[in-house]
C-alpha cells in the first residue's frame, strides 16, 4: 500500500503524502495547475507540509523536461537549514538562557529586508573575504553585467544575516540531552532581487509566445531550454543564489559558535554538519529522464542522505535520513507547513496564546512574532507520520532558545 493519495488532473497526476494532515483547496488547485503543464515529467509530488504559495505550492516537488518555472523556485532562492551537534549537554547550559539569546541577536544581523537587516556599519573582514574567496563576488559581477536591474541588491551586506519571517536560529536538545545549534535562512535580499527579476522576465517571455493553451496562473511562466535566451542566464543566477545561501548559513553558524563559547563550558562540534536547501532547482535523473527538479519547500531525501525538518517555535524538529523513495523524487517535507496566512494568524491568536505555546523556550513573546506562533502551523507529529516512507528519524530536537528576525 502506497503512502500517498493520487489526484487525477487530465495529464500528469499529483501524488500527495498528506494522510492525516489538512490541505486547503487552493493548494490542491495550484498542484493541479502545475501538473497540467506540458513539460511536467511523470507527476508532481506534494509533501505533507504543502500549502498555498505564489504560483507553485509550497511543499511541492516538480520535475520538468526542458523548462524551468522561476516562481516555482521562488524568491527566497536556496533557503534551507543547517544544524551542528555539540558535545555540550543540557546540564551544562546556564539556568537563564537570556544571555545566550542576547549575544546571538547581537552577533547575527536579523530582521528587515534592506540594509537594516544586514551589516549596518562595517562589514566584518572575515565576511567580506569569504564573499570573495568563494567566488561569490566575481560571479555576481558577471550576472549583474548582463542584467543591470539586479545590481544594487544587498549581497555581501547580507552575508551572515538571518532575515525575518520564518527564519530562525535555535539552540536545541536532542533525545540524549546533547545541545544542537540549528538555523534557517537563504539568499536574503540579493536572492529576492534575482528571483523577482526573472519571474517578471519569464512573464514577458511567455506573453510573446503563441501557446497551445493559456497558463492557469501567470506566476507559472517559464523559460524553455534551448529556445529562451534567458534560460541559461536564469540558471546561472539561481545557482549563484543557491551557493550564496549555503555560504550564508555557514558564516552565521561560525559566528554563533564563536560568540557563545565565552558563556559556556569548553565544547567541541561534530565534524559532520547538515546543510540542506529546501527552495531550489537541480539537474537530476528521475524515471528514466534527465530533468530539472524544483523543490519548493522540500528537502532532498536520497537513501542515506541527512536532512532537517523543523517544527514551529514551540514544537519538535527532526534530523532525518532519507529512504530514497523514487515516487517522491527522493524528497521529504521542509517543515510543518502553515495552516493559515500570517494575517489570519495575527488576527486569531493572542499574546497569551503565543506565550502558552512557547512556554519553556527563551524567545520573543511580543506581537511582532504572532504570525509565527506555533498554532499557525500544522502538527509536526502528523506531518512526520504522513511521510514515514520517505525518511527515518535520526534525532528528535526540542528548542530551548529561539531567535527570530
Automatic annotation (TrEMBL):
Molecular functions per Gene Ontology: DNA ligase activity; GTP binding; manganese ion binding; RNA ligase (GTP) activity
The organism's place on the tree of life at top rank: Bacteria
Requisite cofactors: Mn(2+)
Keyword terms of this UniProt record: GTP-binding, Ligase, Manganese, Metal-binding, Nucleotide-binding, RNA repair
Residues reported to bind Mn(2+) 2: 184, 278
Xref: SUPFAM superfamilies: Hypothetical protein PH1602 (SSF103365)
Binding locations of Mn(2+) 1: 76, 167
Active site (catalytic residues): 334
Uppermost EC category: ligase
Gene3D superfamilies linked to this entry: tRNA-splicing ligase RtcB
Amino acids binding GMP: 166-170, 278-279, 310-313, 317, 334-337, 404
Catalysed reaction, written as an equation: a 3'-end 3'-phospho-ribonucleotide-RNA + a 5'-end dephospho-ribonucleoside-RNA + GTP = a ribonucleotidyl-ribonucleotide-RNA + GMP + diphosphate
Keyword set includes Ribosomal protein: no
EC annotation from Swiss-Prot or TrEMBL: 6.5.1.8
GO biological process: DNA repair; RNA processing; RNA repair
Binding note for cofactor: Binds 2 manganese ions per subunit.
Ranges in coiled-coil conformation: none
Name used for this protein in its record: 3'-phosphate/5'-hydroxy nucleic acid ligase
Protein species of origin: Denitrobaculum tricleocarpae
Higher taxonomy: Bacteria, Pseudomonadati, Pseudomonadota, Alphaproteobacteria, Rhodospirillales
Amino acid at each position: 500500500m502506497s503512502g500517498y493519495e493520487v489526484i487525477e488532473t487530465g495529464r500528469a497526476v499529483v501524488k500527495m503524502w498528506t494522510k492525516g494532515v489538512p490541505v486547503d483547496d487552493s493548494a490542491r488547485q495550484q498542484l493541479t495547475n502545475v501538473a497540467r503543464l506540458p513539460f511536467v515529467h511523470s507527476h508532481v509530488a506534494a509533501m505533507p507540509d504543502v500549502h498555498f504559495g505564489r504560483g507553485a505550492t509550497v511543499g511541492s516537488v516538480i520535475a520538468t523536461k526542458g523548462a524551468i518555472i522561476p516562481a516555482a523556485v521562488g524568491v527566497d532562492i536556496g533557503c534551507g537549514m543547517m544544524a551542528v551537534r555539540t558535545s555540550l549537554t543540557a546540564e551544562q547550559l546556564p539556568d537563564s538562557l537570556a544571555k545566550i539569546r542576547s549575544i546571538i541577536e547581537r552577533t547575527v544581523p536579523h530582521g528587515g529586508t534592506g540594509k537594516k537587516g544586514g551589516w549596518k556599519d562595517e562589514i566584518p573582514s572575515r565576511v567580506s573575504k569569504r564573499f570573495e574567496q568563494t567566488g561569490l563576488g566575481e560571479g555576481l559581477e558577471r550576472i549583474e553585467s548582463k542584467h543591470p536591474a539586479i545590481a544594487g541588491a544587498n549581497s555581501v551586506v547580507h552575508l551572515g544575516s538571518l532575515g525575518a519571517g520564518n527564519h530562525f536560529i535555535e539552540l536545541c536538545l536532542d533525545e540524549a540531552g546533547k545541545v544542537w545549534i540549528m538555523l534557517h535562512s537563504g539568499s536574503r535580499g540579493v536572492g529576492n532581487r534575482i528571483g523577482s527579476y526573472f519571474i517578471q522576465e519569464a512573464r514577458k517571455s511567455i506573453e510573446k509566445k503563441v501557446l497551445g493553451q493559456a497558463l492557469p496562473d501567470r506566476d507559472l511562466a517559464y523559460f524553455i531550454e534551448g529556445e529562451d535566451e534567458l534560460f541559461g542566464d536564469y540558471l546561472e543566477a539561481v545557482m549563484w543564489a543557491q551557493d550564496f545561501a549555503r555560504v550564508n548559513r555557514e558564516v552565521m553558524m561560525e559566528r554563533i559558535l564563536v560568540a557563545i563559547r565565552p558563556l559556556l563550558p569548553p565544547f567541541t562540534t561534530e565534524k559532520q554538519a547538515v546543510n540542506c536547501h529546501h527552495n531550489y532547482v537541480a539537474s537530476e535523473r528521475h524515471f528514466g529522464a534527465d530533468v530539472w527538479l524544483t523543490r519548493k519547500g522540500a528537502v532532498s531525501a536520497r537513501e542515506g542522505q541527512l536532512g532537517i525538518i523543523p517544527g514551529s517555535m514551540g514544537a519538535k524538529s527532526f534530523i532525518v535520513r532519507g529512504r530514497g523513495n523514487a515516487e517522491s523524487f527522493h524528497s521529504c517535507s521542509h517543515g510543518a507547513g502553515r495552516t493559515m496566512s500570517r494575517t489570519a494568524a495575527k488576527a486569531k491568536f493572542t499574546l497569551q496564546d503565543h506565550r502558552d505555546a512557547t512556554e519553556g523556550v527563551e524567545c520573543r513573546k511580543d506581537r511582532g512574532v504572532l504570525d509565527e506562533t506555533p498554532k499557525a502551523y500544522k502538527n509536526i507529529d502528523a506531518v512526520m507520520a504522513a511521510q514515514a516512507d520517505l525518511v527515518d528519524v535520526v534525532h528528535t530536537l526540542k528548542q530551548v532558545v529561539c531567535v527570530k528576525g
